[in-house]
Amino acid sequence: MGPNGAGKSTLVKQVMGLLKPTRGRIILGTRDLVANPAAARQLCSYLPQAQMPIDSFKVREAIEIAGVIRGGRAAEVRSRCRTLLEALQIEEWGDSIGAKLSGGVRRLVGFAMATVRPGKIVFLDEPTNDVDPLRRRLLWEQVRRVADEGAAVFLVTHNVLEAEHSVDRWRS
Hints:
The chain has helices at residues 8-15, 37-43, 59-69, 74-87, 103-115, 133-148, 160-166; strands at residues 27-28, 31-32, 44-47, 121-125, 152-156.
């Protein structure tokens, strides 16, 4: 958490290997992610603050492609995709092209893409932006599920109330 411009999203992009720090190292376990940014993409999944580029894909395709790219077997990924679409109550858009979706639904699709086959660490950068109140609650339930299944979830948010209700550890 922090004010606009504090570097929250920049730090996440550096950990993910999308931006190179001007100095220093980022160590995850035994891996130096600055020297080996591909390791970050193997270990971590990421929902960026910006909308996912899914304009030309159907929702189901985008989620399933993300799962297969992350190493999931097609049948397993298809099943998890169905589960996420139902859990987030967005199954009605499963065959819709991304360009035709609202911002909130696109955000939920991005979350599903990041968690259909989550990494050991899941970075969620402002995951509830544009999401309606009902589906916001459903999203938090899925965040909790991902954490309960063993992933470490790092949350970037401005919403103190949501953070207080969703984090396991809070340190000031």
